[in-house]
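2024-03-11 09:14:02 INFO worker-7 job=invfold-0412 stage=load source=structure_tokens
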């Protein structure tokens, strides 16, 4: 294939006819996954998929129709169909269609939001969207933030900022081992310990705070802070959770925030999942006290139903982010005067930055803040319906009442078995049910016991679907 052939194909691939081929695969997937009666496709085993895609590096290009055909016939059927109403698995959304189509605009423009001159419109939109979110969080003027790849990057950056606030020389001189302590709830996301390790703070200096009803025990937190201070140890950050991964529980942000403010401790809220409750008048009170946090991780790609990736980090004082990064790059950032420029690369872990803010901007323009709030309420209401359905039965047990869209429960059977047998039974039930194509759920350990876990992330999932889910699980268990 010559260069002229490649250039010809490039031009042809930019035409509407070529785009429509990809568009057709996506819309066909949406259409097929819309029908709850159609079984969810069961991906082939990992070994078979490895063989399916085990091929030499293509040296010559193929016709576009052949490439798209492989997407439709080999990729889509072997993917998780998140838009199927019986998918109730991980915290990954069935994305809003308008935001999905925006991905093509983001990719075709390919502007990097490192500096304003590389993405003029994108930078302005990111600042505006971040401002909307900080206002919802209760932050005043001077607040700011950035879009991130997700909650892991957001929490890492927040703790980097906390480290910079506690030890401004750390960027250049490093830190003394054991100099600082970070505290987090026992149900905190693993990204917290990962960030503590990566920042050189040492996971031995991450103190786990026990929980009561899956929420951080604030009395235990206060006692641990008192103990650290008596021993001359400095607590530089406390990480609270709003919408935990396992159960969707919300820590008491007001009490934790009051403690942190009185002791001069940086409060970071991992609200990757639950902060979207700010769009809901019904669930917003769960975030009372959020404005006390110095930083908040918030993933619109979760409960605001955006396609991956679309995370954010909000800070009460935007300059905290600027102080966190001591980078000098004269080819990109133009001197100290540039600090007050709109360049988001100054405040971000990343340099090559997608214009992911555009997806949330489009979603808000298309569906409105109230519309996104209504979707949040629907997901939570559906999880509550599942909880009520389980309460009406004696062969299942709910482990908690859902605070958002997550519920952990387990199958007990009749007669009830011993705990060890129940662990094995529920693990096996989840595997057999998922292989059946009738739905897809996850599992976790809660209180040392193996339990089933459902996350409602799809607007197509309603009361009927979760009632059918319970019936199908019971039928599968008895097969």
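2024-03-11 09:14:09 INFO worker-7 stage=emit residues=479
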């Amino acid at each position: 294939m010559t260069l002229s052939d490649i250039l010809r194909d490039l031009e042809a691939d930019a035409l509407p006819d070529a785009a429509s081929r990809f568009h057709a695969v996506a819309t066909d997937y949406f259409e097929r996954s819309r029908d709850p009666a159609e079984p969810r496709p069961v991906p082939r085993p990992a070994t078979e998929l490895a063989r399916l895609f085990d091929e030499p590096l293509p040296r010559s290009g193929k016709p576009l129709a052949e490439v798209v055909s492989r997407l439709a016939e080999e990729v889509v059927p072997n993917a998780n169909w998140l838009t199927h109403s019986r998918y109730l698995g991980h915290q990954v959304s069935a994305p809003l269609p308008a935001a999905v189509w925006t991905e093509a605009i983001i990719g075709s423009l390919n502007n990097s939001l490192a500096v304003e001159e590389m993405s003029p419109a994108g930078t302005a939109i990111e600042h505006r969207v971040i401002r909307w979110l900080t206002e919802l969080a209760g932050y005043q003027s001077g607040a700011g933030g950035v879009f991130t790849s997700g909650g892991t990057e957001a929490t890492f950056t927040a703790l980097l900022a906390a480290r910079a606030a506690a030890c401004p020389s750390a960027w250049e001189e490093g830190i003394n081992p054991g100099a600082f302590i970070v505290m987090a709830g026992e149900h905190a996301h693993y990204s917290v310990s990962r960030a503590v390790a990566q920042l050189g703070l040492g996971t031995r200096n991450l103190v786990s705070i026990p929980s009561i009803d899956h929420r951080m025990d604030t009395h235990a937190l206060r006692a641990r802070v008192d103990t650290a201070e008596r021993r001359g140890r400095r607590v530089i950050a406390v990480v609270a959770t709003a919408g935990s991964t396992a159960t969707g529980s919300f820590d008491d942000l007001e009490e934790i925030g009051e403690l942190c403010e009185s002791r001069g401790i940086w409060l970071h809220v991992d609200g990757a999942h639950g902060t979207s409750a700010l769009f809901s008048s019904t669930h917003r009170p769960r975030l009372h006290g959020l404005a006390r946090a110095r930083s908040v991780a918030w993933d619109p790609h979760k409960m605001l139903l955006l396609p991956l990736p679309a995370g954010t980090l909000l800070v009460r004082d935007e300059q905290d982010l600027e102080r966190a990064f001591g980078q000098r790059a004269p080819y990109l950032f133009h001197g100290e005067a540039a600090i007050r420029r709109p360049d988001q690369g100054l405040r971000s872990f990343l340099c090559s930055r997608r214009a992911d803010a555009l997806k949330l901007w489009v979603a808000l323009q298309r569906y409105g803040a109230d519309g996104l709030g209504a979707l949040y309420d629907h997901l939570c209401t559906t999880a509550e319906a599942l909880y009520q359905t389980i309460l009406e039965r004696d062969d299942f047990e709910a482990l908690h009442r859902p605070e958002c869209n997550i519920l952990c429960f387990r199958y007990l059977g009749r007669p009830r078995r011993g705990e060890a047998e129940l662990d094995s039974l529920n693990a096996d039930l989840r595997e057999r049910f998922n292989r059946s194509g009738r739905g897809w759920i996850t599992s976790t350990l809660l209180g040392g016991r193996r339990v089933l876990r459902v996350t409602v992330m799809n607007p197509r999932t309603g009361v009927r679907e979760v009632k059918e889910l319970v019936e199908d699980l019971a039928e599968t268990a008895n097969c």
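2024-03-11 09:14:09 INFO worker-7 stage=report msg="The chain has three domains: 3-77, 111-355, 370-477."
2024-03-11 09:14:10 INFO worker-7 job finished
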